[in-house]
Design goal:
Length: 218
Amino acid sequence: MTWYEFFRPVAKGISVVVRPKIEGRENIPRQGPFFLIANHQSVLDPILIQANCSRIVHSFTKSTQFSSGAVARWLLPRINAIPTRRYRVDPQVVRTALRLLEEGEAVCIYPEGERSWDGLLQPLRRGTVRLILKAGVAVVPCGVSGSFQAWPRWSRRPRRNPVHLRFGTPIHFGRHDIRAEREAVLDDAMERLEMVLADLSGQPSPHRTKPPSGDAGA
């Protein structure tokens, strides 16, 4: 048994506090590589998603969490967390993600780049969508609702509130190895992903006047 498998029941025990309702598990591929993308409302989201996803996933995690204490330094690598620098191109993370996908693994990304400040879906990071287009694997969207009310980012402790996870139908964009090809389809891919995440999480799609720069550019 791996540490990931050991901690999954622990995560499920924690998730009972917010009484999660799960839909769409049948949309998670039983084998083969895929990206799992989700909107990010709360620190609870990775716990809930990894506890209730039938596949083992490697999850992008901001690098500062790895230096937040001895427990985090020990635990995060053992639950497949990938240290990621936010708001900048991170070639090492790109290489790591592509390698894991080539090995048939699943990689989880929160394409907004950070937790929501108001519970609403934020614009997606362009670099993250570029990575998705470069990899060319299936994308399983997951809409999270209720976790912001259960544990907003300014609160020190969770509250009892129902949380809903909806795993959507896999999306296929095809593989775009050439940068010019990625740029040509980037805006349409971003709009499609935003609409799907908004629909699954029951939120409006963000109005974007100028998309933010990527944090994991490809």
